[in-house]
Amino acid sequence: MGIASLFKQTALKLPDKVAIEFEDQRITFREIDLQANKVANALNEIGIAKGDRVAQFMPNSLELVYSLVGNFKNGSIIVPMNINFKEQEIHHILHDSGAKAVITDMERLPIVRNVQPKLPELKLVILIDGNAENAHNFNEITKKASDKEPNVTIKDEDYSIIFYTSGTTGKPKGAALNQTNVTSNIKALAQAWKWTEDDVFLLTLPLYHIHGIGVALCGSLYVGNFTILKKKFVAEEVLEMIQKRKATLFMGVPTMYFKLLEVEGIEKYDLSSMRLFVSGSAPLSRDLFYKLKKAFGHEILERAGMSESMMNFSNPYDGERIPGSVGPCLPGVKVRITDKNYNDVPINAEGEILIKGPNVFNGYWNKPAYNKQVFKDGWFVTGDVGKIDEKNYVYIIGRSKDVIISGGINIYPREIEDVIESMPQVKECAVVGVPDKEFGESVKAYVVLNPKSKLTEDEVIAYCKEKLASFKKPKFVDFLDALPKNTMGKIIKEELRKMHKGK
Prior knowledge:
By secondary structure, the chain is of the alpha/beta class. 32% of the residues lie in helices and 25% in strands. The chain has 3 domains: 177 residues, Rossmann fold (3-Layer(aba) Sandwich); 167 residues, ANL, N-terminal domain (Rossmann fold, 3-Layer(aba) Sandwich); 99 residues, GMP Synthetase, Chain A, domain 3 (2-Layer Sandwich), CATH 3.30.300.30. It has 15 helices and 25 strands. An 8-stranded mixed beta sheet has the order 2-1-11-10-12-13-14-15, sandwiched between helices. Strand 1 and strand 2 form a beta hairpin. It is globular and about 70 Å long. The chain starts with a helix and ends with a helix.
């Protein structure tokens, strides 16, 4: 069953229930369904057919929701783009995907106009909030369109959405997910997290990332919960809304949770309505896990996924949530930990993480040669290094490309980062390998301190030497005001390596 058909079932079951509240607007599941029909038919009328790529370059809005579901009904393939991207970044994605149309707003229109002459495939620009020459107005074209169900046959293997990888190293690649990749995963998440129509979901994630669109929005449209959609994340507002609206579900990235802890007088907020806080998109440190548990009275549920497969692992809703672990596999997902020759390694041994399941994509868009390298006998080679314990809990230690090889010995940054972040003065840190004439690479730590805290390089090194084998301790420690991160809170380690090169 396709994604649109899954959402249609919810609309038929709960037609008059309010699905989404955005700013001063409240829309029902029936209204979403009918508006999506209009979008699908309008797209067809202006020349966008099944298989065409349609880029979304707009902030959180109801138009984005209608566009999402309408594209699924039309059979066109959605290409979400980060709203903070500049010309070079959107040019790459629009060119690589061969997008025929882009749906955007007046604020971002100049960026689109500057790249459009270099993109012969980009025929159409659709604006959600204004009018411009050689551009369609989203509301005008949908208003005139029929609200009847479009006559498009969608198959399970048809592509639905192309998520471009975060591109923390090199140019982003398009992970093309088909209908089954998405539907199987949102069903697995609903089951694993006991996510139901009774939930009140506060959604502040940006809807251009797999976390915001694939997990949060698609999941909520499937289960039929009431979603309070915000344009952006504001820490104090989140706590106020949980208390005022009796929210039960919140999803965030570690950076968001750091900011929630920094809200003055956090203890005054009543969070008793909450049943689940979820964290993902970047590692949640053990230290942050325990700080949040103390502040919220909840153990944050950490899960892990990727653009290529939606979600793969999750700590259990009922059962032990282990800080530092991303939990067992989600229903339907299988995992292996292998050596460099793709032989399975023993329990608790570190190795390459390989996955298989209905959620796993078939390959990157327009990358046939590369796709042959990232699949081994039907298993996707994730590029992550990790291990599995006796309870089948998975631990992600880091990216294989981030492994530091010093004197022929593999050193995993996450292990050192956990130790440094256990120091009470430290807010967060990142560890990278830097060139070393004698050992090939040395360990360097970049550390962000808590307000009013002080530490020296020697103190950090001595603490690591006390907690770890001596060869793992940092040779260098630099203190920063903030770590370089992408918009989903993932640390850009390539920037840190460049900082060292610049010295």
